[in-house]
Queue: 4 jobs
Job 1
Amino acid sequence: MNVWQAESFPVSLHFPRKVGESMRRPLIVGNWKMYKEPDEAVGLARALISAIGGMEGERDVVICPPFVCLQPVFQVLRDSSILLGAQNMHWEAEGAYTGEISGAMILTCGCTYVILGHSERRQHFGETDATVNRKLAAALEIGLLPIICVGESLEQRRAGRVEEVVLGQVEAALQSVAAKDVPGFALAYEPIWAIGTGTASSADQAEEVHSLIRNFLRQRFDSKTAAQIRLLYGGSVKPDNAADFFARTNIDGGLIGGASIQAETFAAIAKAGG
Ligand code: PGA
């Protein structure tokens, strides 16, 4: 267990505090992807603290910089309410896996969350439902809170396969996961055609898929457990459409890419999520 994390961020404080259907604590996550070198990352983290400080208790805000920025950014964040996440991890604790990084390593850098199965990793780096499931098991084992990404391609949507594809990904990721391990989880629905394109899904379309996922989770676990999992929307979320998404019953926050690497836009989106 990471000492910084244990002292500064008791994880239980950041779980959804209420389990009623509309009472989940909003979660806004910035996925910085492969942007920002350590100095720039520290500057952006400082700017975010001044822009969204004072929102403690209203929502959870998490930023996920590149691996090399985790430690310096954590030094900036440790006295703030903003939490740190990583964009990926390996499922093994250690080993001969050149270029990979373990959950223990990112935990030691001060991370509370880890993004798993982002579509860019599935598309460019051979991530599969099976590897997402192994990574999820490793994250749970070590005490990292997972943000599992799912979403359909444009072709799959046009072929009417959204439900089959998305629920298939959710089911595969959660294979062998017990209800007791679920509090703290987040699932991000990110239609691939909306990521980085400037064409977001409509809030109605997203809510429809979120409600399918919530129903699936009810059947897979139980109503109480399903009501605890935060479902995020991701894909071209901007300050001018964020509030519309976050107002929907089953949309509990967002996974933000492009708009998260500028303090003003990410702060505006985070403020919309409360
Ligand atoms: P975007 O990315 O906000 O730039 O569309 C979202 C994501 O990839 O998580």
Job 2
Amino acid sequence: MNYKEVFSGFTDSGLIANNDLEKLFALQNEHVLKIVKQFVDLCKPSKITVISDSKEDIEYVKQKTVSNQEESTLQIEGHTIHYDSYYDQARDKENTKVLISKGEYRSPWINTMNRDEGLEEILNIMDGCMKGKECLVRFFCLGPLNSKFTIGALQLTDSFYVAHSEDLLYRKGYEEFKELDGSNNFFYFIHSAGELVGNPPVTKNIDKRRIYIDLQENRVLTVNNQYAGNSLGLKKLALRLAIYKANNEDWLTEHDFILGVRPKGKNRVTYFTGAFPSACGKTSTAMLPGQLIVGDDIAYIRPWEDGFAHAVNIEKGIFGIIKDVNAKNDPVIYEALTTPRELIFSNVLVNMGKPYWIGMGIDHPKDGFNHYGDWNDGITDNNGNRVTHAHPNARYTINLNDLSNCDPRLEDPDGVPIHGIFYGGRDSDTMPPVVESLNWENGIFLGAGIESETTSATLGAVGVRKASPMANLDFLVVPLGKYLKNHQTFGHQLKHCPQVFSTNYFLKGKDGKYLNAILDKKVWVIWAEGRTRGDFDAIKTPIGYLPKYEDLKNLFKLELNKTYSQEDYIEQFTLRINFLLDKLNRMEEMYNAEKKIPKFFWDILTKQRSGLIELQKKFGKEQISASELAQI
Ligand code: SPV
Ligand code: MN
């Protein structure tokens, strides 16, 4: 196709300015031109603006976000507030679908749709969806600049808020796109907030909200939404495309934080990744005092020349849950949220230019503006539900390097070497606070068995367990069996396989009270670090290695200046055999629903089960403490 001719039509009709067109052509990439042409024709914006990496271009986005009222400025310099529709406050799982061809197999828990039908439906919805609006053409990088890890991302959107968020969360990529040498080796994302209503403008046609993942074309089409988990191409939408790519190559894409652990008195940093379902302590682990944060949400992990797995954060910012961020428990984030810098609040209460969220540790005013609109205490929505002053899933969007614990290796093109992996669950009665897997395959099994109990913060019954393999179930686009197998082969390529640990910060005693204080997790993390460096011995059990009392006692003293009693240790590090067997039964039931789960998974399940039953017989009881196990 002669794109010069095609686009001259666009300039003639005033759709695109000459200098914007020049920016597009300077990339020398026909794939980009083809995509822009196809979706401009379909979405019919009244203007196309191409944003390069230049300061002026990025500043234009920021200014426009405010002038078109997608964001409003707050009292503190650089702070803005954005609202999503009252009905678009979280990821829409029901309408997020993986498009697959006839005959392709996916796990039963993956939401799929026939590709032809899906495309027909969404392209229909997108027809004219940008009418009267400006379409931004953006270029970003998933990963550090000049890095083997990094994947380019092209974003078309009619939301300046989406583009502004991406400037905070991702690295600039216009110049990197020139390095593609015309190839189509990039992801692309077409987003439209659709028809808008009200002031601030929010998506009107929520019933036509669709998020369709087209693996064949490395693209995601998303329409009639604004909430970042639905709208931002580079966040959970790119995660799915990258999971597909990694699982068909030799690397991993994970829903992981990356943490640099620094034990007291040792002059070293040891890197861990960690996957935790929501409300299981992911952010609080990534933000542990005295440690370094590289990333809080998504990691690409590759086998590296030094024999270690290396990981990069594909983001450079945080889209974090703001609920419960307060000066006492999260001093670093709280400080960043209450001092001048560029950041976006979303879906919190604003009164006199000040933001208020749930659990911020200070009283909030009885009225103001929030995600519902004009709000006052006691107001109910159309369903008769009381509207809280801020949404429980309200967020802040901020540059990571605005946090004082940000690790400069965030930008290391070689990533950081991973010595350990955490899988964090939430259960009140089964898993000890920390367990190390017996080997790599057993580590995969630990990750595959993560469960999270529902809390009073979510809708529905409390204490219901939800399986969440590697905290990645929502984002899996390949069969779970293939995903586990890929983990296995990944580990076998490495000379230094990461050691794998599970954590459970939520174990309760007979009285129903939590057995651990909030900061105890620091000891589990530092113990795991020591294990990867050969500092501690451990007690071997059928489910994995448990820490020894003396080591924990010393770490509690050193890291927290706390006395850790033998009684506490015994209660926390006891194998509750019946509960562990129940957990194995649940895993068996779930994984039986999948066609091809690798053999190693079933071998480990069988071995753990028989090992636990044997112990039960040997001790003649069903609760056996680590101290008793240490004797055998
Ligand atoms: C999560 O829910 O895991 C998040 C926020 O990190 S969202 O972008 O909505 O996915
Ligand atoms: Mn996440």
Job 3
Amino acid sequence: MSFQIPRGTQDILPGEVEKWQYVEQLARDICRRYNYQEIRTPIFEHTELFLRGVGDSTDIVQKEMYTFEDRGGRSITLRPEGTAAVVRSFVENKMYGQPNQPVKLYYIGPMFRYERPQAGRFRQFVQFGVEALGSNDPAIDAEVIALAMNVYQSLGLKKLKLVINSLGDVESRKAHRQALIDHFQGRITELCEDCQARLEKNPMRILDCKKDRDHELMATAPSILDYLNEESRTYFAKVQTYLTKLGIRFEVDPRLVRGLDYYNHTAFEIMSEAEGFGAITTLCGGGRYNGLVQEIGGPETAGIGFALSIERLLAALQAEGILLPISARIDCYVVALGEKAKEEAVSLVHALRQAGITAEKDYQDRKVKAQLKAADRLQAQYVAILGDDELEKQIINVKNMKTGEQTEVPLASFVQYVKNALV
Ligand code: HAM
């Protein structure tokens, strides 16, 4: 019997995992600079949270959730995204009462969606996301967008497009909703079944339909920007002013509606424009969700955030031919020949490691030549060779692999020698 990995998931093996570590560390460092703190919430939550939080007219809730009953008969769902869970935790832990507002949080972890797998689309993927809760200042919208752009740009990505839109406040959306109903109603049967259901529940979702994207009614649909009230218009204008001040280029796209129900005011996506990136070009998506905290049972609180997947980020790096500065080199390989020397090598690599040096030795009882080859494969900076004769004399030969220079070093000062040589 043989086993295969489930569709839409992947093993991240040594050689590849270093890229993940690099990118995740970079994201953490950038969050530190912007003063966002990490939050870790469970991989699964009660299903009701996502019905409420993500919205029951969304594709995620309708078609993509990994939902099951646990042994206690409760409906549990593997998290399809991070925002609902962060807001749940924000409310549950009464973070709205903390003296430091807004509460600025970030997370990195796996999310699960039962989607049709294809390039850039997985069933388990890792999102890095941030959420800023408790501020209605358009400057925080600009900050969140700047943070996302900063992550990509620090990695050297250039072919990026930032698209923004405003979904307005409740009043603006109500007006737009009616206009959409009027627009689609007469010919709704020309659209897919999902869109027909969306007309009543959430007509804005129609604009996000993957099937009917090219239908002529889509291009002529009323634009939300024409329905923004004064307050929403002013808010959106301020966000744009701040972005311009920060030197962040953007396009306004009134068709950007996003796939989750909780958004209002600012919505944005970052796409890759690299050639050969593939059909799915969205790298990052986010926006403002001012009603969500209340929806989840907390006090009225503003919120904005984004999430991006590491999978798509790495794909963008590959499409732009960017190599990350990752080194898998080890510092020192200890080659031993002879029984006594082999025994001593066990202690020597231990001592090196205790001193903070990356060290390796042979465990396959290989001949000297094969040990040297292994050291070569690991790109050891120094190779220390110990035979029974050297051991007798309490010395060891240390070779600098870059210069070829060999030095006879007293065993007693071997660790210190390597340590000094490495600086
Ligand atoms: P989302 O647009 O559903 O938003 O997902 C955000 C990002 O997650 C996407 O832009 C993409 O990079 C990645 N992503 C989504 N689905 C997949 C998949 N199947 N495979 C690989 N990557 C994927 C959210 O999840 C919101 N919670 C974002 C947010 C945070 N809004 C406010 N705060």
Job 4
Amino acid sequence: MAALQSVAAKSAASYDVVVVGAGFAGMYMLHKLHVQGMTARVFEQGSGVGGTWYWNRYPGARCDVESMQYSYSFSDELQQDWNWSERYAPQPEILAYANHVADRFNLRSDIQFDTGVERAEFDERANIWSVTTSDGKTVTAKFVVLATGCLSNARKPDIKGLDAFKGKVYHTGHWPHEPVDFCGQRVAVIGTGSSGIQAVPVIAEQARQLTVFQRTANFSIPARNAALTEEERKWFRQNYPEVRRFAREEARAGIYTEMPDRGALDDGDNERRSKYEARWQRGGLTFMSVYNNLGIDQTANDTDADFVREKIAEIVKDPETAKLLQPNNHPIGSKRICIDTEYFAAFNRPNVTLVDIKSNPIEEITSNAVRAGGKDYEVDAIVLATGFDAMTGSVAKIDIRGRNGQTLNQKWAEGPKTYLGLMSAGFPNLFVITGPGSPSVLSNMIVSIEQHVDWIADCVVYMRDRGLETMEANKDAEDKWVAHVNEVAYTTLYPQANSWYMGANVPGKPRIFMPYIGGVGPYRQICNEVAAKGYEGFTMAGTERARAAS
Ligand code: FAD
Ligand code: NAP
């Protein structure tokens, strides 16, 4: 390839790689590129690093994968040094960790903050990307890596009158940086996904009155969060080689945990119940891995869902409220399962009311109230916990033009099409981290991020070492992969839910199951095999003849 530009080329605003986004994906990508001596520029629309943890500052925000595992593994010194305070670190601590990583690995000088990437265009003659940013400038790069995040495009719902509301309106995914004090206020929370479920118990403690507007009840498992003891931290630190290996290679979801060896119907009622009870007491996401068929067998799934519904009925004192809170329109786990701290118990408080907007939808928001079912619920503040245009939303906001001027939005109009979730045919040298078609949001995302970054970095070095100009997914390989992703999804119960995995939360978005459900271990193996076979299914310029000959 025309030699990858040297460090000196920086002044000409030309880089080996432009990375979009400075969350965990963009930060690690930059570090890897530094290690490999590549020039890189990261553009981040926020004013700091951390991505998700920079934007989602709502009360109660914390991770749902345990912190000793929801953390980078690429540096043993880092994982030995960093002290997570709780089983699930709160947002400020995760953001502090991201900032620590940025400083520790000298990332900041190559990140341009407060700068959104608006357009990226591939010049087919020069084999170079032109990237235009919100400050009106254009830089060029051999490669573009989209580290734009799967849950980074907060979705404001289209509710009549919302803009005319006189009080404050907040979105969980775009929370202010200054503290928000709900003391003495009447607050509405709209939305009961993971964000709403984390925020409700905390806001309930402050607000004079909290009204929760629920369209769909969700399954939620207690987090059982607690301070981490020194022994617990020590155990992880000593066992990290095996914990991380297992999470990468053997786990489906990138989490170190026991693997189930039997299905739910292989146990009798009492045995099954006691296993569910034990997991409920333990808390956390691994509740779903007690049996190996909960995601594929409806009868098995029902036993698990019934258990959780019973728990809700035990916790919530008012039977009518309990019934409304019991999910009944999707298999447990087919939407991202929520992890909570005293969510259901919050509805026992005298200052918390649940409003069912499934049967009585929100009609409009007036200057001082949410109107639903003909009734005005007067509030001082509204919290929108209404989620994201997930997986494709942030990519779609960028005007990306590949070969023949085709835009990525045109290509993905009927749903995202990628090969391995990493590249899309017709868009050479453009990579996506944790893109649709990869395990991504179905996993401990740091495991998936590290895997993609390592793969992309290896690939770019492979090209540099061989003087290759371009790399592009082959259309037939992509078609086969898209079909495979779809086929695997439909062997499970997942597509039964109107979830954001399916694009179902955004009106008009194509209904495609976007992430790859084959598991992080098998997926990693596929990616490694593709690379070992000289990037099978991709075309690297200059190699076509050799490939054809072989
Ligand atoms: P992000 O962290 O989303 O970073 C992407 C960055 O790109 C953002 O900062 C954004 O501003 C920037 N960007 C986007 N478009 C542009 C553009 N055009 N120009 C410039 N910059 C741009 N996952 C887990 O595995 N475990 C968890 O416990 C967990 N908890 C979560 C809690 C919340 C509240 C949310 C919303 C998500 C959670 N996730 C969790 C998923 C989480 O998004 C990932 O774990 C991870 O943080 C994603 O990192 P990322 O770098 O890929 O994306
Ligand atoms: P979400 O799961 O998409 O939930 C959005 C909620 O808003 C749903 O209850 C939805 O109802 C409701 N809603 C959307 N539009 C509405 C409208 N117009 N009127 C009324 N209600 C509306 O979004 P999220 O809670 O932000 O979570 C997104 C993902 O981020 C999670 O699944 C998870 O992966 C991640 N996350 C993780 C954590 C954590 O625990 N670490 C915390 C937050 C987020 P319907 O279901 O009926 O559409």
